[in-house]
């Protein structure tokens, strides 16, 4: 067990590619107990204080990889990110799970990964060779070299409403069966959407984003009901043609998840772009097709975020 105090010491310990990182331990500890991993050394990150900082510049939010979900739940600078963190797992997971751990695990249903994909976030990575920055989709596509350390995530400061909605068998305490993150930028007149749970990593339905962007009354910040419905249909169509679809499973078939993605997207955009500000996080039940899992329900989290 190695307990470094600085990022430089961590990357030195990882230089030979034969170390495992321990932050919150929500993924590594069960793997060690089940003997699925047998690293030569474990590099514990709890004492590396620079990984646990968060802050903001004029246009960016910076979140250290050691920041926990609990740390984010009340962060007023990013209401959408805070709302997403509040529906991650159980209180125990939120208290120990970290931003860097979410990226390292790369769960295709990860709540945080879906939101960060919609928010155009960047991942900051250190190694003995230096520092590099990649966007979240590229990071998830290529993975992390064993000699590298995720040190932070950067994302634009909110310029409009943001919503994260998910479906799970036990609402916030369960892994998302399917989820949708929506980020509206009123300054640049953009809408970003990411869907989790239909493919090996969060999916961005670009055609649907452009369709809804053109249908918004940007002066009033509102959207017509038929545009919201059309957006949902396009999202469902995009979910049906992803290159790496997740298979049918006991919790819900691929067809159900595609249907649910469209429903969530339509409700998310209607919730963001209405005359009234969104309410606090509430439970959401969906009109599901016949093959929906028993008791499936959604958890909805919304928040206005403006400069």
Describe this structure in words.
This protein is an alpha+beta fold. The protein is built from eleven helices and 14 strands. The strands form four sheets. Strands 3-4-7-5-6 form a five-stranded antiparallel β-sheet. It is globular, with a radius of gyration of 19 Å. The relative contact order is 0.13.
Q: Helices and strands, in N-to-C order? A: HEHEEEHHHHHEEHEEEEHEEHHEE
Spatial gap, N to C terminus: 44 Å
Average pLDDT for all residues: 85
Q: Report helical residue fraction.
A: 25-40%
Kindly estimate the percentage of residues that lie in beta strands according to DSSP.
Answer: 15-25%
| Uncertain stretches | 275-307
Give a brief rundown of this model.
This protein has 307 residues and is an alpha+beta fold. It has helices at 7-14, 28-33, 69-72, 79-86, 91-96, 99-105, 111-118, 136-142, 206-215, 225-240, 254-272; strands at 19-22, 41-44, 54-56, 60-64, 122-127, 130-135, 149-156, 160-168, 178-185, 190-196, 216-217, 222-223, 282-284, 297-305.
Secondary structure topology:
Elements: H1 7-14, E1 19-22, H2 28-33, E2 41-44, E3 54-56, E4 60-64, H3 69-72, H4 79-86, H5 91-96, H6 99-105, H7 111-118, E5 122-127, E6 130-135, H8 136-142, E7 149-156, E8 160-168, E9 178-185, E10 190-196, H9 206-215, E11 216-217, E12 222-223, H10 225-240, H11 254-272, E13 282-284, E14 297-305
Helix pairs in contact: 4-7, 9-10, 10-11
